[in-house]
Every structure is written in C-alpha cells, then in structure tokens.
Q: What sequence folds into this?
C-alpha cells in the first residue's frame, strides 16, 4: 500500500473522514476490497456518524506509516500510544 501524501489529503477536499469510495481511491484499491478488508479486520475500525461509515484520514495515514497492521494489532498500538502520551 502507498503512503498518503499532502496531495492526496488536499484532494480529499480537506475532509477529516472519508467513505469507502474515497478510501478506495486514496489507497488505489477497489471498494469491494475495502469492504472485504474491513470485514476481515485488516483496516482500522471506521467511525459511524448516524448511518454513515467513515474512516479518519489521519488515522489511515498513521496506520500506513505503521506498516498496515491488522485491526487487533493496530488497536493495541494505539492503546500503547495513549498510555505513553
């Protein structure tokens, strides 16, 4: 997977959270792959805003920088970072 850069973030129109379609574009994956990865726990947990499912752009960027760990490992990493901070 590629790392999101400033151009990618600018192209997300300054959004702090994106839907599966936009996430697929940012990661150069299909929407089906995004949904499959989400179901398999291979992406960070999305947030739900009403009925909408969104992923935080900053979290996806950090997740990519960490090497794209599965959700369980990612949440453990995030929890450790919270304890340290």
A:
């Amino acid at each position: 997977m590629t790392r999101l850069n400033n151009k990618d973030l600018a192209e997300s129109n300054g959004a702090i959270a994106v839907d599966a379609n936009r996430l697929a574009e940012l990661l150069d994956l299909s929407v089906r792959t995004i949904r499959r990865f989400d179901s398999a726990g291979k992406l960070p947990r999305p947030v739900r805003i009403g009925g909408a499912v969104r992923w935080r752009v900053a979290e996806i960027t950090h997740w990519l920088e960490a090497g794209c760990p599965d959700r369980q490992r990612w949440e453990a990493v995030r929890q450790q970072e919270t304890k340290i901070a």
Notes: The first strand starts at residue 17 and ends at 18. The chain has a mean pLDDT of 89. The radius of gyration is 13 Å. The CA atoms of residues 26 and 49 lie 21 Å apart.
